Each structure stands twice: as structure tokens, then as C-alpha cells.
Amino acid sequence: xxxKRPFRFVVAILLVSIAPASFALAENWPTWRGPQQNGISSxxxxxxxxxxxxxxxxxxxxxxxxxxxxxxxxxxxxxTSTDRESEDVLLLAIDTAGKIxxxxxxxxxxxxxxxxxxxxxxxxxxxxxxIWTFTGDGNLACHDFQGNPLWxxxxxxxxxxxxxxxxxxxxxxxxxxxxxxxxxxxxxSRVIAVNKTTGSEVWNVERKTDAQGKCMRSYATPIVYRDxxxxxxxxxxxxxxxxxxxxxxxxxxxxxxxxxxxxxxxMMHMSASPVAAxxxxxxxxxxxxxxxxxxxxxxxxxxxxxKHRLWHDYISPMRPSxxxxxxxxxxxxxxxxxxxxxxxxxxxxYKKPIHRHTHHASPVYADGKIYFASRDGxxxxxxxxxxxxxxxxxxxxxxxxxxxxxxxxxxxxxxFDALYAIESQQRGEGTVSR
Length: 434
Description:
The chain is mainly beta. It is about 0% helix and about 40% strand. It is built from one helix and 35 strands. The protein has one helix spanning about 155-160, and strands at about 15-20, 20-25, 55-60, 70-75, 75-80, 90-95, 100-110, 125, 130-135, 140-145, 150-155, 175, 180-185, 190-195, 200-205, 225, 230-235, 240-245, 250-255, 275, 280-285, 290-295, 300, 310-315, 325, 330, 335-340, 350-355, 365, 370-375, 380-385, 390-395, 405, 410-415, 420. The strands form nine sheets. A five-stranded mixed sheet has the order 16-17-18-19-23, with no helix packed on it. The longest helix is centred in the middle third of the chain and has 4 residues, at about 155-160. The N and C termini lie far apart (about 50 Å).
């Protein structure tokens, strides 16, 4: 497939002054893994060390817990949340001073059924005009920046009943004029594309699978792969990664072989999402499953055709997605063990523990540093590169499952209790609201 349109996730880059003689690139964070869906930020001069008060511009208490990541566009922050009192699922709009501008109900249900994966688990997405949300029980909605609802429907009304014990967690993926959502659960093997401004269906395809048991569940988020020769959607789950034509949903290729060395594991569902750079796609599976590095030029069923695989190893994490920076792959297992590997060969540079606690969040990179957030609220900052070095260990002392977001000189951390804006003191006021 030839490239016929620009890469829509690349946002406008603005130069902003952060000190009289110092300038840095500032960018938006429009999806749960940033402007290019890979967890990478181009920003610099970000804080390395902080606490609940040090280098905190503000702390905003939230109405309920959720593992979703905030998205940011210029001076607006959007995130989904449960509400402990009303049992509603909410979309919140917050300004960069830490004030809630408006909130809208986008669903309802047991808010605390599972703090690490409740009905507010999917992260929102934005393009600077629209905010798209998806809830664990299947409500797909679009609002404008003033909070006006533009369209909404429940996928159960159009397709199958949602059969997921903890609800759906896949985030909506905008690209061009289309919004993509994967519906991979016990009662569905489907991928849908809707017009992002109207919600009308563009296409929907049944995604063939021979998965068994809980392997039918997928909590992963689809991504778009793009290089000079290719442009397609990638969906991960139900024992396969599948590439789809963006305009029709037609299946282009698929790859399997994700189960542990011990054999087929009917309990192995997929939660982590793929990540890609030009010429390489890193694909996780389930806990200790077969982690794969694939070439992007497949056609048809390519499982076990080694010319399409760069390398593989049985190191897959359960939930954190991988990071791919400068031909180095960073794979953080759920127990807090970091694998640093050559992305093209799989050769291990090191395997080191970073923080011995459960990791659900996916890592993010900026300015030569990688930020790893753990369930106990500890964020470990590791130097990027082949030499292992922990730069800081920051204890928030609040449970945390959401991936960090980086925008306009700040790191945004969403705990179960609050949203933090982390900023170097030379930039911010250092005020904390509790």
C-alpha cells in the first residue's frame, strides 16, 4: 500500500519559552500513548525528582478511581473517571491550572468493581476539536471542547453483547476522518470503524479466530502502522495480531505463536498493546508469553514464516506495553523487571529490577529518560540507553495504574485519588491543592 495521506497523529509543534534564554519543544498528548501512539515525547527539561509536594504545580482530587490516562491538547486536559457517590462514569475537562471546567456522564455502573480495570478504564482521545470516549460496557461517544455531546451509541445496540468480566479497556484510536475500535471479547471478534464527526459506521469486520477460553479477551488498543510503503491498522488479541486496511477493514496479514513454551494457555488474555517504528513492530502477548518483533510487510497468514520475524523471546509482560527508542526495546514485566534489548536482533543489553512492585502502566520516554509507574504509586526514572542507571525513585504514596502523560513541560500522573501536574519548580508555582 502506498502512502497517500499525511501522518495524522503528528501534531503542530509550538515553541514556548521556559526560561529567558531557554526554549523547548512543546506538544500535545492526544492519545493514551501520546502523539504517535508510542509513548515518546519530544519535550525537554522535564523534572526527574518529585514527591506529593516537591515539583508539583497542582494536585486535583478526583471523584473516583480509574486506570485511564489523561489526554492533553494545549490548555485542556480530558480524562475519564468513575464517581464513587453516583456510580456514574464521567468525562472531565480540566484546565492546565488544575480547575475542572465541566464534566459529563458517559456511562454508569459499579465504579469500584476493580480499581485497576473498571468501566472508566479506556482512555479518551482527541484531535483538538473532538473528544472520543469508550466505556467498559460499550458506550462510544464524542463531545466537543465545550462539553456538548455530538454523538453516542452503545456497541451492544449495533453488534454483540459485551461479555467481559471487568469490562472493555481498549481505547478509541482516531486517524484521519475515522475512529477505530476493537471489540474482542468472549462474545465478539470484531473491529469497527466509524466516522469521527458523526458516529456513522464506515465499516465493521468479523475478525476470524480459533482462540479458546479467556484467550478471547483482549484489553489492548489498536494502533496505526505507517512507513513509506505501508499504512494500516493493527489489532491485537485472541491469539493473533492482525493488520487491516484502514479504508475497508480487509485483513492484510496475521501472525500468531504467542503462547508460553509450555503450550496453549486458555487463561492467557492480552492486555498490552503493540508499539511500532519504521520497519519493526513489537508485539506482546500475555504473562511470560512469546514476545515478538515483526517486520511490517506480511501478506496473509504469516505465522512461523521466519522471514517476517526479527526475533522473539518468552518475556512478555501481562499489562505494560513496550517502549521502542533509538533501536532499543524496553520491556517491563509486571513484577518490575526491565529487559533492555536490541530492537533489531533481540540481543539483551541488560535485565534489571527497577522497583519490586506490580506494574500496570506503560512506560513513557522524554529527554533521555524513561518513566515507569508502579501500582503502589512509585515512579522510577531510568536513564535511556544500553547502560542501566536509575536516576530517581519517586514515591507518590497513592495507588496508580494509569500511564503517565507528557505535555507542555509537565508530566501528568493520574492516581486513584487525584490528578497531579508535575513540573520543575523553576517553571511552576509549586502549589498543591488537596
